[in-house]
Amino acid sequence: MSLNERVQEELEALEAILMDDISITYDEQSCLTLIKSTIFPSTANEVNKQYVCVTIEVKLPEDYPDSEPNVQLRNPRGLDDSTVNDLYKSIKEKCTEYLGQPVIFELIELIRESLTESNLPTCQCAVCLYGFSEGDSFTKTQCFHYFHSYCLYNHLETTKRHYQEEQEKLPAWQKSTKGFQAICPVCRESINCDVEELKTALPPKDLENAQNFEVTKDLRVLQDRMKQLFSYQKSKGGIIDVEAEENKLLLITETSDNGSTDTNEDPGPSDGALESDAQRGQRFDYRVSSGLNNR
Ligand SMILES: [Zn+2]
Ligand SMILES: [Zn+2]
């Protein structure tokens, strides 16, 4: 059987086993086969008990399986960096062990097994920055982000209150008719939570046991150093004063008016003259347009 046929056979087998859970495409430009699959722990189809997941992306070089595939793990959810690094290590070992043989299904199974074993988020709660200890009540959002139920409840209540306060300040015609929509504090996807249930959750253990915050001598020294650094950066124009920025006038200036030979991009305050409105306008203009170019 030719190399190509063997790979073809492996890919067909993958599609037959994983069906919709795998996507196999061929990139004409790079002549590489790209395989993608999002892997969840095995929880006997209880989807709400899957707390972690990761997407594997495999690029097959032309001489695969005689050379190792290029494997990337994307969008890990509920997994911290060290767990992802451990996965990479096991993947590398498996690839070396299986050199010359089909390995992709083995990789997917390896990751699935590892996710099943550690089907508990190893990341931190983005609200309180503590991890998840046994016994902590936590919530997984639809977007696979994790929070202590206690923290998420407090976050949702605060954002809701803030939203209502902002709405009250608006004139009637500007008020939103849609009402408050909770969003994930990490990725801003809309989320739907049972707030009444979250409300009953106890605070996470680490938060309970945390020492009361105290300003120590070291912190005071650090504070002083930061204060000096702040004044220094401000004096150099490195701190943007948001209020002053808002009151600035946006002047549309034609570069040709000032002559195109003017290459002095930053006149700075050193020449003793204050920056003219036109210069300021030009700079602003530049910032706006460069922002657009980056999109
Ligand atoms: Zn928390
Ligand atoms: Zn999210």
Automatic annotation (TrEMBL):
Show the ranges annotated as biased composition (Polar residues): 253-262
UniProt-listed SMART domains: RING, RWD
| UniProt KW keywords | Metal-binding, Zinc, Zinc-finger
Compositionally biased, Basic and acidic residues: which spans? 277-286
* Gene Ontology biological process terms in this record: cellular response to stress; positive regulation of metabolic process; protein ubiquitination; regulation of gene expression; regulation of protein metabolic process
Q: What is the lineage of its organism?
A: Eukaryota, Metazoa, Ecdysozoa, Arthropoda, Hexapoda
Annotated RWD domain ranges read 9-118
| Protein name, as recorded | E3 ubiquitin-protein ligase RNF25
Query: Residue limits of the RING-type domain?
Result: 125-188
SUPFAM superfamilies in the cross-refs: RING/U-box (SSF57850), UBC-like (SSF54495)
Q: Which Pfam families does the protein's record reference?
A: RWD
Q: Where is this region: Disordered?
A: 253-295
- Signal sequence annotation: none
Q: Which CDD domains match?
A: RING-H2_RNF25, RWD_RNF25
Entry superkingdom: Eukaryota
Q: Which PANTHER family match?
A: E3 UBIQUITIN-PROTEIN LIGASE RNF25, RING FINGER PROTEIN 25
Spell out the molecular function terms from Gene Ontology: ubiquitin protein ligase activity; zinc ion binding
One GO term describing the cellular component: nucleus
